[in-house]
Amino acid sequence: MKELQWMLNASVFCLLGISTTLSYSADTLAHIKSTQSITIAHREKSLPFSYLSENQKPVGYAVDICLKIVDAVKKELKLPQLNVNYLLVNPSTRMSAIVDGKADIECGSTTNNAERRKQVAFTIPYFFATARMLVRTDSGIKNWTDLKDKKVVTTKGTTSVKLLNDRDKVRALDLKLLEANDHDASFRMVESFSADAFVMDDVLLYGLRANTKDPGKFAIVGDGLSTEPYALMVRKDDSAFKALADKEIARMMNDGEFIKLYDKWFRSPISPNGANLNMPMGFLLRDTVRFPSDKVAD
Q1: Using CA atoms, how far apart are residues 112 and 114, in angstroms rounded to an integer?
Q2: Is the peptide bond prior to 269 cis by the omega test (within 30 degrees of 0)?
Q3: Measured over all CA atoms, what is the biggest interatomic distance in the chain, rounded to whole angstroms?
């Protein structure tokens, strides 16, 4: 009988321990207040969103937004000082960093989609990437119908391959689809006239163009084939922390601060090479700035 009672007590203790852990991990603000620290997950080379500067400090468009949220947290919790810790993540580890409580918010270049929302939550989007194409300015290519019988390259293993095949079937363009091992190789094929167009997320194309010797020789053209909303990742079912983050992003959008931040990273020279992406704000992001919302189309 005593043994049975001991087992029951142990079971109750374990259940209470699990419950406490779940509650604790889901209450980000309480955790931040008790430790007086917040942990930001960041990327190493996701320029201009989240990358390491020359002195190995996390910088970027998404990092700047996260630091504004840190200021909002300090104000909300009435903390004169708040230690900011950084955790380097990659595409394979970024979600587990949030789910397992290793980081409080992820500031990288992560797409908000239905599959990921099963494990994490997302803030109001801060960027919308869309698949377009980079061409030589003298190519005469303006949109997808101009690709008929052309050589089109994309990077191996990316979603652009399927997008191109689907567009080819619908439009009967008779594309000659080529695949390169990485983005730099794909760009060089257009540069060397081995391909007529390079299809990829527009922000990557703008970055490649900005870092070439003569950006004026290339243009990013074509209607968007797909849309990927980038947003900050936070823990699922933690409505208080997400609401605070969303409120701060909405404030930045309403106050005009967000547009200034966008211009800083997309329309001005940035480190490490002083390149200027010269990328105008897309209409979806402009609409989000006017009417901030975390709702996205999957």
Answers
A1: 7
A2: no
A3: 88
